[in-house]
Amino acid sequence: MGNHRFREILFRAALWMDAVAFVLLGIVLSALKYNLSSVRPPTVLGALVLWCQNNGLVLITTLFAVSYGCRFIRQFLRPPLIQKQLKALMDALQQEVFRAEMSGGASLYDHRVTLFRHGWLWRLHRWPWSGWLYPIERSGHMTRRRGTFFRAGGERGEQEGVAGQAWTKSATVVVENLPDLEDVSSLEGGLQRGLVEEYAKRTWVSRDWLVRRLAAKKPMACSFCGIPVEVGGKMWGVLVLDSRNSKAKAGQRYEATYRFFARVLSKVLDPGG
Amino acid sequence: MSSGWIEVEPSELSTPQTMKRDGVSITVTSSPYDLPDGVRGAFDANLGKFVIEFRYVGAEPTVKELHDKYIVLRLGKNSGRLYAIEIDVEAAKAGWVTLIQKAIDERSRDAHKPRRLTNYEITRKLVERVPELSAAFAC
Predict the structure, then answer these.
(1) Could you give the number of structural domains in chain A?
(2) Domain boundaries, position A236
(3) CA-CA to A156 of 20 to 30 Å: which in A20, A185, A265, B8?
(4) pTM: predicted TM-score of the whole model, two decimal places
(5) Is the CB of B57 less than 8 angstroms away from the CB of A252?
(6) Based on C-alpha coordinates, what's the Rg of chain A?
(7) ipTM at complex level
(8) Does the residue B40 lie in any domain?
(9) pLDDT tens per residue across all 273 residues of chain A
(10) Do residue A244 and residue A169 come from a single domain?
(11) Assigned domain for B1 exists
């Protein structure tokens, strides 16, 4: 998610740097084989070849490191075309499933589709860094910050959120009829506290995290549907549909739609598969 | 294989289950990847066996596992999902459905390998319920 333009520039910069490192590596390797005794009198090129020969090991190691670094960045960022396809898919799924709500004038952020990927998360306060579900794309043009992460580790009790449950079960998980926390104006009253506790328990998140979301006036869904996403038979991530409707968009009526999007997502995420 | 795919309605094979997890009630249904949307069965002259195949939304490499000397299961290398069943027609005779059920049951109990219990249950149902498979086997 985040800024697509910035990601695209970074991806292209990494691509170019990789290409330049590859060409320079070829030049350095050629220079190492060059016989300088045939060059008389000394030229600028000769001086450059001599410098390459004197620093051959450092140069080759550095260029290899730059090349691998660039490849890692590109892999992490994903090609801009794939990111655009994912965005289009999230928007299409939102429009398909929440068609009635959209035509009724509902806000885009009240009925969202988010694609979470399972992997590493580099946050000092989120140790251990492995086994997290983090958002990589979301429908609509609002609420696109990447602040929501869910633990999805291998051990029992390490799963957070509906996404974490869908990940662990490798199955579609539905939670609905949650308390409407956007109506909770203050957390002081006993009733409000009870509702927050109930919401946190039923969505497998901590009360503190929920309170912070409420304070930041983030959207509070009343139903969730988490659908596993696989690539080549391996669990890759989870698709989460959250809605202000108390009834989740799940069941036989939506199964064909989810199957279609699951198929397309797997193809987009693994074009060679 | 000569026969075409028999379309099946995946949602009819899978029923949502309501379960309690840590004291919280949730509804769980099969992953879209675990539900076959097509099945076909035909005699494979090259293998000399009757082969039942299942079609899914995803694809992956498969590995073969021998069960009960008449039945070979082709399972997803990563997921353990059931992609095909090879049956030794001559040896299995009329008891092929029972042999398949037994093989799938055995595989369900093998916790040391990747397995998809919901998928096994669904494919088991399909083998029992799709009459075209029995007709193809009889040919």
Answers:
(1) 3
(2) 78-178+221-269
(3) A265
(4) 0.83
(5) no
(6) 25
(7) 0.86
(8) yes
(9) 666 778 888 889 999 999 999 999 999 998 888 777 766 666 788 888 888 888 989 999 999 999 999 998 888 877 888 888 999 999 999 999 998 888 887 777 889 999 999 987 776 666 777 788 999 899 887 666 666 888 887 666 678 899 999 999 899 999 998 988 877 655 566 677 788 889 999 999 988 888 888 888 888 899 999 999 999 999 999 999 999 998 888 888 898 899 999 999 999 988 665
(10) yes
(11) no
